[in-house]
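Category: protein sequence paired with discrete backbone structure
Discipline: computational structural biology
Format: plain text, a pair of labelled lines
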Amino acid sequence: MTVTDQQAGTGATPTNVSLDDVPVVPAGPSRAKTIALNVLPPVVLGILVLAGWYFVSYVMLDDTRRFLLEPPHLVLEVGFLDWDNFSEILQGLWSSTRVAVIGLTISIAIGFSLAIIMSQSKLFERAIFPYMVTLQAIPILAIVPLISFWWGTGQRSRVVVCIIISLFPIIVNTLFGLQSAERGMHDLFTLHRASRLTRLRKLMFPAALPAIFAGLRISAGLSVIGAIVGDFFFGRGDVGIGQLLRRYANNLDGEQLLASVIMSSVLGVAVFLLFGWIQNRVIGKWYDAAGA
């Protein structure tokens, strides 16, 4: 039957379109297929990585050089299942986590303050931004003697390293977000004679949230790197994961070394996912709706 036959009894203008010509919207993928597409690729890649790991350990390395890359089951047995070794790694990881959290918190406070100041005045932006770029470009090794001279070789210096490494992405992304509000919306706020504080709170800051969280996710990972790097240079105080990495490398403890590296990676991934979860809770639905 055609649409023409159906329209004959209603007096509507006939159109010679067959129902067979009407496109059919395909059904979306099933939930099981979606889960499989998301889970199987990383699982398969992980299996291939483990197979390559075993190949390097037992085929490419002889017995005298196997300490360079111990096989996975020995890393699991010595580094994770031996509680004495694993508890030492956890304590070092907790010490580095505290340093990373303190450094990231201070970076957020400084970065937000500077970004807000620069967003309110082009003069301040031109004055401050070059020094922020310079600070980001300075190799951390070049200023380690200055940091130890000014703040000692303890936890305070590790926090300073975290701040230096994680500060720049917060400033850049927050400033970009604050300046990304639409020109027409600014004109509307100007028409209603809104104050700077009102404009910042109700227009610029909501528009900046996606960019702000992008910067926070980057800086969160960098703060973990800064805490570990600081451990290598400043060894006084609580033993961090960076000091354990150096000790295990010096003692040729390959199993503990690889276990520490794995736990350091887990910490970085956990911090990144935490800020991603916070972002979804704060702006996820709003941002998806706005994009749609």
